[in-house]
Specification:
Helix content is about 25%, strand content about 30%. The protein is built from five helices and 13 strands.
Length: about 190
């Protein structure tokens, strides 16, 4: 499904399940998705329906690629474009050189601390719900592996758009594009 910005991944799955249940003989179809997209993210959301949901564990560890825009020099309460600005700083003039220097550090085995605004659950609640309620919890760094020699891995492309930078990031299950953006910003300042 091409998920538009706005609804959550779970809301999209619910809609798809309802549509398929309406036209099928089964009223209690199983349905699930292969990775949560942020509500403000638009893009392909792979969904499995019926017996195909049994294949989800075989597919969810596959690599994915995200296109995103980074706005350097601005920090927000939610670490995305929807949050309120809490800090701003001038973007260095040699930003492209600094980005080129830091990009190789995003390949290979690295430890990544998941951002509070993620779908990971703590005590049965997604971290983003806790974050919106003003609660911050300790998160352990998780080992992730990025292999630049495989298609769709690593940071493939960075384009200068004034103070915004477009990037395509290949990632595997458990990696967070938002977290990668935060790490990149810290390394180049």
């Amino acid at each position: 499904v091409c998920k538009p910005a706005g609804p959550t991944s779970t809301q999209i799955v619910t809609r798809v399940r309802r549509i398929f249940s309406t036209y099928s003989e089964q009223r209690d179809l199983a349905a699930g998705h292969l990775g949560t997209l942020d509500p403000q993210a638009a893009g392909v959301l792979p969904i499995a329906i019926g017996k195909a949901t049994r294949l989800i564990p075989l597919l969810e560890d596959r690599r994915k690629c995200y296109a995103l825009t980074l706005v350097l020099g601005r920090s927000t309460t939610t670490q995305d474009a929807l949050g309120e600005s809490v800090e701003s700083a001038p973007v260095p003039e040699n930003i492209l050189q600094r980005l080129e220097e830091v990009l190789p550090s995003f390949c290979g085995r690295i430890d990544q601390i998941p951002p509070m605004f993620s779908a990971l659950k703590r005590g049965g609640r997604p971290l983003y719900e806790l974050a919106r309620a003003g609660v911050s919890v300790e998160r352990e760094a998780r080992p992730i592996e990025r292999q630049p020699d495989l298609a769709g891995e690593g940071i493939e492309e960075v384009t200068l758009l004034g103070q915004q930078h477009a990037a395509r990031i290949g990632r595997q299950n458990g990696q967070h594009a938002r977290g990668a953006a935060l790490v990149a910003e810290r390394h180049i300042q």
